[in-house]
Write a structure and sequence with these properties.
This is Profilin. It comes from Opisthorchis felineus. GO terms for molecular function: actin binding. By secondary structure, the protein is an alpha+beta fold. The protein has helices at 31-42, 73-87, 156-172, and strands spanning 50-55, 61-65, 96-99, 102-109, 115-121, 134-140, 144-151. The protein is 25% helix and 26% strand. The chain has a seven-stranded antiparallel sheet with strand order 2-1-7-6-5-4-3. A hairpin with a 5-residue loop joins strand 1 (50-55) and strand 2.
Length: 175
């Protein structure tokens, strides 16, 4: 992030206020930055067809694309619960979950800490298309949750790498 406050004490630098639990969208001045990350860097790559970036703590949605890919707070909680279960080496009791309108089944968390799930039902799927046509992947930083959906027929390794690279970027920025 750019700052004109170089050399000033940290307490003199403006800090963005924390969001309340009931807020679902981030309308801060950083909205353009979040939109650029999702729409230009992630969706613009052509590797990922749906993406959402959320605050891990408040569950506020920073940016998303396309327009209908907006998970609820409860859906985000379930996804974060799956990540925590894997970290604690607990068995996943119910592997089925929804993110926005996508119905998914948990598969695994990779060594790179990417949660993977099959997309079983989606507006992306054509009537004659296999339910194994798309995959959901999710990564977390200390403060953010990034979710992406990509076609399995495409370059899925590059899509996963893009999510990992974006996670590392967000973590380095303290986001």
């Amino acid at each position: 992030m750019y700052s004109d406050n170089i050399g000033q004490p940290e307490e003199a630098v403006y800090k963005k206020p924390r969001f309340f639990q009931h807020e679902s969208f981030d309308h801060s001045t950083n909205a353009d930055v979040w939109n650029q990350i999702i729409k230009d860097s992630i969706l613009g790559s052509g590797l990922i067809v749906k993406a959402v970036l959320c605050n891990r703590n408040s569950r506020a949605i920073y940016a998303y694309g396309p327009q209908d890919f907006t998970p609820s707070v409860q859906q985000i909680d379930i996804l974060l619960g799956l990540l925590q279960a894997e970290d604690a080496d607990k068995n996943v009791v119910n592997p089925n979950f929804c993110i926005a309108l996508e119905e998914c089944t948990y598969k695994d968390v990779t060594d790179d800490k990417i949660l993977l799930a099959s997309v079983n039902k989606s507006d992306l799927l054509k009537p004659d298309q296999s339910t194994a046509a798309y995959e959901l992947a999710s990564v977390v930083t200390t403060n953010s949750l990034l979710i992406g959906i990509y076609p399995l027929a495409g370059n899925q390794d590059a899509a996963k790498q893009l999510l990992c690279d974006m996670r590392d970027y967000l973590q380095d920025q303290g986001l």
